[in-house]
Amino acid sequence: MGAKMVDFGGWDMPVNYGSQIDEHHKVRNDCGMFDVSHMRVVDIKGSGVRGFLRHLLANDVGKLALPGKALYSCMLLENGGVIDDLIVYFMNEEWFRIVVNAGTADKDIAWMKKQAAEFTRHLPVGDAAVALSPASGGKLDRGAPQLEIKDHPEFAMIAVQGPNARAKVWQVLHDTKARTEALQVFQATDCGGYFIARTGYTGEDGFEIMLPAAQAESLWHALAKAGVKPIGLGARDTLRLEAGMNLYGQDMNESVNPLESGLAWTVDLNSERDFTGKAALLANPPKRKLVGLVLLDRGVLRGHQEVHCAHGTGEITSGSFSPTLEKSIALARVPTGVQTGETVQVAIRDKMLAAKVVKYPFARHGKGLVSL
Amino acid sequence: MSNPSNLKYTASHEWIRSEADGTISIGITQHAQEALGDMVFVETPAVGRKLKAKEECAVVESVKAAADVYAPVAGEVVAVNSELDNAPEAINADPYAAWMFRMKPDNAADVAALLDAAAYQAVVDSEAH
Predict the structure, then answer these.
(1) Of the four, A152, A199, A288, B22, which is 20 to 30 A from B1 by CA?
(2) Does B59 map to a domain?
(3) Beta-strand (E) ranges in chain B?
(4) pLDDT score at A137
(5) Which residue of B40, B49, B60 is the best one to mutate when testing the A interface, meaning the one whose CB has the most A CBs within 10 A?
């Protein structure tokens, strides 16, 4: 494919196949595909899965009623720090599927298992058997959690994204059309062998297809033959940044909580439900928030540049050039007093450059959303 | 694209062309533009600025990274290519035509001592994994 490769957490990943900007526009205006096989699929199966996930995750899987429906959520430490962000799919009452980031997958799974052990141990007496993956064939009481947490590194994942993405997938995988045509946004279906989700990381429509790694190469080539262009990590980053989607490790990590990472909309603090990290979030009102920046002067915003505003100093968490807006854009963590529309100063090398605080997303569905 | 044999080079991936008036034009090499990818911003030094050899004096930024450009020899900046302000992608399209700035070298001998095309290619090959 003529890709320029780079090491990404131990995975050899393509940064770009040709022009990164051309790849970006291709996804916004037509469609492209990403090899995202580094993402890890984790299945949690057994009875009582929903109850466990309502305890484990900051967003509430109680909202998921329709089979295949998905939810974006953070998984938090007790102190509210973000262990990872993930997508959780409700397949049925005994099967939820979670897709986590590659670099955090092993730590995530260890945390899930530890939390599962504690969750089952602390069930009220009378709620019966406390066991992870019970080997016995004996019938357990109704409601007793018996959770099996299993990751699937043998799965590959190909994301096909863009306004024409679904049509291209149906052209190549005609048999899946009947099952995937009616999928809502953020809903998946198991097509036997292919797990197809109407999700993505670009702000465009499309599918993420999980499949056995052995079949991934032939699907990739079939899609390429149908005219779907391969897209590298570089454009993946500018697409997700324009779409206002956080990147774990850059926009948030274990040292910040979701309320200071632009993710309050994924955290449910008002209901009765208790979840790991909730007490810490309630005890520590946010002092900072994530905002969008558009650079008014010439230059390029980058991660870790200091942001100076009337209310104090902040820092850019992700910055790049937006091919859609043809301006430099960024996400920045700043004091909560900073207002949309305000002009702030960003320290770039030996200069202070003006940037405007804007509401993000910056672009989605082929269009820029920011006017200055 | 091979490196033109009429140019001089640095190990930090600048090319240098000697002009008829005794000045030198400086840009970045094919290898450098290819490694950086789509250019979106160029910052050139102020005309009249006196530079030491290997001093940071300009910046090129692609979508994915920023890179410093260094003065190949000591001298004074006599001109900058302001066309790159609005068309930084010209560096991707033809790196050996897209000069960034011109200098009047303090010593012409410093220019003669820079790398020739073959020596520069050896530097590029040694950096390849």
Answers:
(1) B22
(2) yes
(3) 8-9, 14-18, 24-28, 39-43, 50-51, 56-62, 66-70, 75-80, 101-105
(4) 40
(5) B40
Q: Which domain holds residue B12?
A: 8-127
Query: Which residue from A minimizes the CA distance to B40?
Result: A321
CA distance B2 to chain A (A): 19
The CATH number given to whatever domain includes residue B71 is 2.40.50.100
Residue B81 lies in a domain: yes
Q: What is the pLDDT of residues A149-168, one digit of tens each?
A: 999 999 999 999 999 999 99
Q: Chunk chain B into consecutive blocks of 10 residues (it has 129) and report each block's average pLDDT, rounded to whole numbers.
A: 91 97 97 95 97 97 94 98 96 97 97 97 88
In the stretch 59-88 of chain B, residues with CB closer than 8 A to chain A read 59, 61-64, 66, 85
Helices and strands (H and E) in chain B: how many: 5, 9
Question: CB B41 to CB A298 under 8 A?
Answer: yes
**Confidence at residue A186, expressed as pLDDT on a 0 to 100 scale:** 98
For residue B118, the tally of other CB atoms under 10 A from its CB is: 10
Domains within chain A, CATH numbers bracketed: 1-252 (3.30.1360.120), 287-368 (2.40.30.110)
Residue B51 belongs to some domain of the structure: yes
Q: Which residues from chain B sit within 8 angstroms of residue A349, using beta carbons?
A: 59
Side chain identity at A372, as an amino acid letter? L
Tokens of B77: 């900046």
For residue B108, is it within any domain?
A: yes
Which of A320, A346, A353 to probe the B interface (max B CBs under 10 A)?
Answer: A320
User: What's the total number of domains in chain B?
Assistant: 1
Q: Which of B37, B66, B85 is nearest residue A300 as measured by Cβ atoms? A: B66
CA distances from A142 to A38, A92, A128, A187 (A): 37, 16, 9, 28
Query: ipTM beyond 0.85?
Result: yes
Residue A24 has pLDDT above 60, yes or no: yes
